[in-house]
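Table S2 (continued). Query chain:
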Amino acid sequence: MNKIMFDILLLLKGGENWDVKRYARKLFKPYSIIEQEYRSLVYDKYVAENKLTKKGEQYLNEHKIDNAVILAAGVSSRFVPLCFEKPKALLKVKGEVMIERQIRQLKEAGISEIIIVVGHMKDMFSYLVEKYGVKLIETDTYKVRNNHASVYAAREYLRNTIITSADLYFNENIFQKYAYDAYYCTVYREGITDERGIETDIYDRIINTFYGAADTWITLGYAYFNERFSRNFLEILEKEYDYPKTMQKFWADIQDNHLSELYMYAKRCHGNIIYEFDSLEELREFDTSYCNDAQSPLLRQIANTLKTSENNLKDFKPITKEDLGRGFTFTFEQKRYICRITNDSKIIEINRYDDKIQELVNLTESFISYYDKTLPLCAAENVISPFANMPLSMGFQERYIVGNTYSYLEQDNFIGSTYLLPFYQMISEQCFKLFGAKYSDARTLTGMNCLMMVLTSLAKIGDRILIQGSSAGGHASVKPIAERLGLKVGEVPFDYEKQDVDYEKLNQQLHNEKIDFVLLAPSDIIHPFEVEKVDTTKTTLLYDASQLLGLIAADLIDNPLKSVDNMVMFGGTHKTFPGPASGLIMTNNDELHSRLETSINPIYIRHTQMHQKVSLLFAMIEFETFGRAYEEHIVELSNALSEELEKRGFSVGKAYDNKYTSTHEVFIYTDKEAMDRIYENSIRFGVTLNKKHKKLFRGYGIRLGTQEIARYGWPKDSMQTIADIICEISFPNVDDGKVRRLLSGLPPKKIQYTFDDATEAYFKRFI
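Corresponding output:
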């Protein structure tokens, strides 16, 4: 017996006269397959004379569905304003309450035991017990967890069980009394969809799921858990329930992660049978009675206040889905309004506002609130001081200049560019002071833009280049960029024990082969490379020092510009160097400089984002005074944090010289489960860090960075608290209260290593 044969039995059981074409249409299968499977049923004596035999009846009875669980706990925040007054499931659609319609359809299909999981406005469902004989189960996690929690709340009832959502509307009764195996209702969706698409085998078993596809079958409607599925699902959910990453998962997300154990079949349905209303607008399209009178006191009051009818009020949205107490917005006469209400759903105020302005306010508030609260341990981010931030609002952004310190020609330039040139000249002077760079170029926009500009300006199609592989800590974008530019790419030999380039093997390769460029772009690095060991007699060294620019400028690690001539050093200026997100290219080689100088601008970059360049200059001036102390504090904190983590049992990365780190980065080696656990809990508690899956981390690990917390001047002993936090979030069962207490005990975020307010005051009049 297979599912197609079983579905044919169901149709016969339901009184459908045998007709191969009609059956093929209902089951979405070719005539030939339906005909073939029907013959198999006849041959196996499940069917005779187009009717079920006793054997067929007995087989169906062995596959009876026991009960149904209706999920009705959620808030349905997108259904403002009606969700303030009653659960969406209790709305009438075309004269019938949605959840009552489902209860009736289930009973008509022969499902008598019905369990409803309630949470939000749970008391409003009580009448269903007496009216229909259903059972109510309460859950109090509906505000913080997704629908897996409602399924879990009903776990003692999960056997051969239908799982359906209370806010679904079925035009036809597609519930069934018998089922071959676990299944999910599916419909065909034309065009691109954000819904969960499926791939099945010939018998409709789901073998893959995906999102963002076009013209595909999607899961929509109810599902059926048979005993196999229920048992396996609960076993997995018991293990993963307390994982932070589980909290926001739908039960189907859990299935996706364990599809081999939690497989289902597709129950294919016509697209006009299943409806799910996510908003009032969608409900109005289906039931026009909601256009003029939604039976909502809130809507009536809004309409009366604005002296209009309800159908002129449109596009309702919550201000935030997480906090309905902040109110909702809507459109009237092409203007956006905001409505704030009390806890008992009474209107406080209705104000008109610009939709985009309010959206910007909400987004900005969320951004600032989030980053104010985070523990910033991401090795790729930093903050700039108020002093360096000032030029970003001084009007430089709108101005153009062609050329650089060394190639500026007034007659070929924009009028007024002479007022911009001195800033470039000062940048060149600061690059010489900080890096010993004879030539510098700050016209690029970011570190990655530097990389592309250097390769585009210096290399030609067919050139051979060796790069640091991503498994060795190299930046993952280097290879696709180099290949896109038509370069032949190989990898630099790497010594994983020393965490450094294998210079002997590399130089031997450079001696034996024609290699045009060696590009080192360390993203993960605790042991700075000794790049002066690279033989550049016949090759050009390109060194992306984005992670290390500040350490090099402070003379805490070797500066290759002082010892290697045939090279270009470049990188982003917002990591250990605490400037804006900009780019910087430097060299002491006349010929390389000439090729870069005449290519970058105006050929590859027209507008150089001058505000960033002036901000970078301010940061350089600041760095000249405070940089060394700041960079020393970075390294002090990263080693202190490494030591504290090791005391707590973590396997912490060390360079071959047995030093923890010479940079801002800290490596923690873990297994995959611990890595994922730390990462997911970091999202939950606002700890910014990176997880790593690469050979440099012995397989799996976590990368931390101390450059931002050092910028706040956090003391060395605060690393004990940070190590305690990392330790706590590595546990399977996190003590939420303890983590939050530890986070609240960290020092304030006030930027140090910068000029005082008096210095800033000199410039305030220009802002």
